Amino acid sequence: MKKIVIVILTMLIETGLLWAISILINWELMEFLFLGSILLFAIPWLFLYFNTQNQNAYNVSAKGITGQDAGGVKLFRFRFSPIMTGLVLYMVLSLCLTIFYYYEYFI
């Protein structure tokens, strides 16, 4: 139950944030919805990816300089936390809403 609340709260916060940004730049929410949801998903994903890359570079340089094993190189594995699940779910829903809203232009 706690995870479902976190997923829903993540989606509500993302909606509010995208709505505020769309008002700030004078765009309609539907024009900004899908691209904004991709951007908000990419920010934490890239942060986790580059954090792993920096840790691996540190471990390799420490082993090269000192010869001590500093933890080795680790693979980046994407994990679905409740927040990331909410971001992915919001991205899929915003894609569906965007396709439904602009359906006339696809025909």
From TrEMBL:
The entry's keywords: Membrane, Transmembrane, Transmembrane helix
Membrane-crossing residue ranges in chain numbering: 6-25, 32-50, 83-103
Protein's UniProt name: DUF3899 domain-containing protein
Organism: Sporosarcina contaminans
